[in-house]
Amino acid sequence: MPDPNETPDAANTASQERSRRTLERILASAERLLADRDFRELTMQDLAAATGCAVGTLYARIPDKDALLECLHERHVRLGQELSVRVMAAAAEADLAGRAAAICGLVVDYLGASPGVTRAVTTHLFHLREDASDHRASATAALREAAKFLANGVSAKPTQRIRRDAEFALLAVLDVAEGRIVFGDRSRTQLRFSKRELKQRLTQLMLRYRTGDCP
User: Which of 12, 64, 102, 166 is most buried, by CB atoms within 10 Å?
Assistant: First the structure.
């Protein structure tokens, strides 16, 4: 029941906050459901039931599955950006090995937080949109920022060659990490690593590429 003493602005702010919390609950439920099923198998009815809300409430905030995928992607990117800021700040004074370990830890923690969302976005989002340039741009910007952080561990004024090598090393790590964390359960080659061991192995891989040990 509305509070008669509540101002219109306060009532509007409270309503927006309730709507935001409901949307977060919906997206959190979608992440849990996507942990063990493909995005194509997820129905809006399943999502409403998992969230504990009416189907009409769900559609009022997310009109269809395409919109759901967009919202999941945006939420995932936002959480990744927040994690990146914390990780890079904590390793700001580290050497190359320390920065490589920080970046590899970031990759594993980010992908491991919600692999089902990453799998859904990778598999479906770019195919659903005719123009996915904004999503690719955000991914490219994040990659370059992480590569810049890595390159600065080599030199205070990294050359173009150093930056390029850092980007390549990071791409190699991302490819392996995605294959193991996001799509590993679908791989014919089952290699089981703990998160800690995977971080260590990826750090070794990154440093080998970065120092020229790999062709």
Answer: 166
